[in-house]
Amino acid sequence: MLRTISLGTCVSVQGIVVGKTADGKLMVRVDDKTFVGYPVTPSRAA
User: Fold this and answer.
1) C-alpha 42, offset from chain centre
2) Which of 5, 17, 28, 46 is spaced 20 to 30 Å from 39 by Cα?
3) Residue ranges of the domains in the chain?
4) Which CA distances in Å does 22 have to 25, 27, 44?
């Protein structure tokens, strides 16, 4: 599943989910790198 995570206030990464951590963070894979961050909640357009 493709998900977007936030690595900081201005940096986000989109990739394939490979796992979850105990504190609620997601691990996503982009090419040969794995990133860990908080999931971005989808916005609802009016």
Assistant:
1) 12
2) 46
3) 2-39
4) 7, 11, 28
pLDDT value of residue 45: 72
Tens-digit pLDDT profile for residues 1-46: 899 999 999 999 999 999 999 999 999 999 999 999 999 988 887 6
20 Cα distance to chain centroid: 10
CA–CA dist 39, 14 (Å, integer): 10
Identify the pLDDT of residue 36.
97
Residue 39: both structure tokens together? 């999931």
CB atoms within 10 A of CB 37: 19
